Amino acid sequence: MNPVDAPSFQLIQTPADLKAFAHRICREKMLGVDLEADSMFHYREKVCLLQMAGNGENVVIDPLEVNDLSPLAPIFKNRKVCKVLHGSDYDVRSLYRDFSIEIDNLFDTQLASMFLGEQETSLGAVVNRRFGVVMDKRYQKKDWSQRPLPDGMIEYAASDAVHLIPLARMLMEELEAKNRLEWVEEECRLLSGVRPVENGEEPLFLRFRGAGRLQRRNLAILEGLLQYRRKLAMKKDRPLFKVFSNKSLLTIANEMADTPEALDRAGCLSAKQIRIYGKTIADVVKKAKAIPTKNLPVYPRKRRPKVSPRVPDRIKAIKTWRDRVAAELELDPALLFNKALMTAIAVKKPTGIGQLREVEGLRNWQVKAFGKEIIQVLAEVP
C-alpha cells in the first residue's frame, strides 16, 4: 500500500489564528497532539512545530513564528479534554520546557499498545497494523528549525496527529475488554508529570554512562573533556554528540591521551578533529592529570543496606511468578514488574496489602491486580 495521502490542514503562524483555533477546540473531548523538534541539529533543542487534531480540524502550529502558546495552556491543563500522544515522554518534557505547558488527562497510544502486548509499538507500525496505512517517514531526521520549511515537511508533520484519536478509541476499547485500561490511565498520569532534567552545578560525569567504572584520575579527565565539549557545543550551536562522541571521550579518559600523537594512537578521533582540537584536548587531559590526589572527584555510590540472606530467594520466587503471569497475559514481563521493583518488594517482604502499598514505586494497579498473589508467593518462600 502506498503512503497515506497528505491530509488537509491549516498552518498557524499568527497569534490571532492560534487564539481562534484555541477557542474553537477548547470544549473538545479528545485531541491528537504531536510535535517536531530540532535535537539532532542544535545544542539547545526546541519545539519547532506543534500538530493538533480534533473537531474535524488538523492544524500545524509554528512556534518559531508564534512564540506565545499560552492560549493552548488551559486546554492542555483541562482534565475534561483527553490529550492523545504517542511515545509522549519527550513531548511532555519539551512542552513544559519551552512553553510551561502542563498536561492533565494524557493518553499515550504507545504505552497502550505495550499493555496490549504488541511487540512493535512505533506510531508507523501501530497505524499500519491497525489501519493499513503506510506512514511516510522520510523527513523524520530532518532539521525542523529551518525556515521556510518545504511544503513536503509540513505535510509530513500534519499526517501524524490525525491518526491518534481513532487509534486511541480503538486501544481504549481493547484495554477495557482486558481490564487493563486503569493500568494505562495510571501510567499516563505519572507520565504527564515528567519534567526536563536540569544538570545544575553537578558534575557532568554523573549523567555519563560508564563513568562509574573509572578510577578517580580518569574520572577527572572525563569531567574536563565533558566540560570542554559542552562549551564547544554551545559556541557552535551543535548537539553534543556531533561535537565528540561519548565513546571518543571515554577512550581518551581511559588512555589518558595528553598529546595529539597519543590521541592519534588511541584511534578515537578523526585526523581533522585532532588537527583542529588535538592540542586543546591534550591540555585538558594534562590539567586533569596534574590535579592533586586529594582533590580528585569521587563517583558517588549508595551504600547498599544490609538485607536478609533470604532476599535472593524471594526475588527468584517473585520473578518466577511474574514470568508465568506475563506469559499468560502475553505481556513483556518488565512491564508488569521490573527488576528494581521486584527487589524492593523482596527486601520489604510485606505480609499484607497495607505493607505492600508502602513499597516505593509500586503502582496502584499492580497492587489491585496482583497484590494478593505477591503476598502468597512471598509467604511460600522458606
UniProtKB/TrEMBL annotation:
<dbReference type="GO" id="GO:0008408">
    <property type="term" value="F:3'-5' exonuclease activity"/>
</dbReference>
<dbReference type="InterPro" id="IPR010997">
    <property type="entry name" value="HRDC-like_sf"/>
</dbReference>
<dbReference type="GO" id="GO:0006139">
    <property type="term" value="P:nucleobase-containing compound metabolic process"/>
</dbReference>
<feature type="domain" description="HRDC">
    <location>
        <begin position="215"/>
        <end position="295"/>
    </location>
</feature>
<feature type="domain" description="HRDC">
    <location>
        <begin position="308"/>
        <end position="382"/>
    </location>
</feature>
<dbReference type="InterPro" id="IPR051086">
    <property type="entry name" value="RNase_D-like"/>
</dbReference>
<dbReference type="Pfam" id="PF01612">
    <property type="entry name" value="DNA_pol_A_exo1"/>
</dbReference>
<dbReference type="InterPro" id="IPR036397">
    <property type="entry name" value="RNaseH_sf"/>
</dbReference>
<protein>
    <submittedName>
        <fullName>Ribonuclease D</fullName>
    </submittedName>
</protein>
<dbReference type="Pfam" id="PF00570">
    <property type="entry name" value="HRDC"/>
</dbReference>
<dbReference type="GO" id="GO:0000166">
    <property type="term" value="F:nucleotide binding"/>
</dbReference>
<dbReference type="GO" id="GO:0003676">
    <property type="term" value="F:nucleic acid binding"/>
</dbReference>
<dbReference type="InterPro" id="IPR044876">
    <property type="entry name" value="HRDC_dom_sf"/>
</dbReference>
<dbReference type="InterPro" id="IPR002121">
    <property type="entry name" value="HRDC_dom"/>
</dbReference>
<dbReference type="InterPro" id="IPR012337">
    <property type="entry name" value="RNaseH-like_sf"/>
</dbReference>
<dbReference type="InterPro" id="IPR002562">
    <property type="entry name" value="3'-5'_exonuclease_dom"/>
</dbReference>
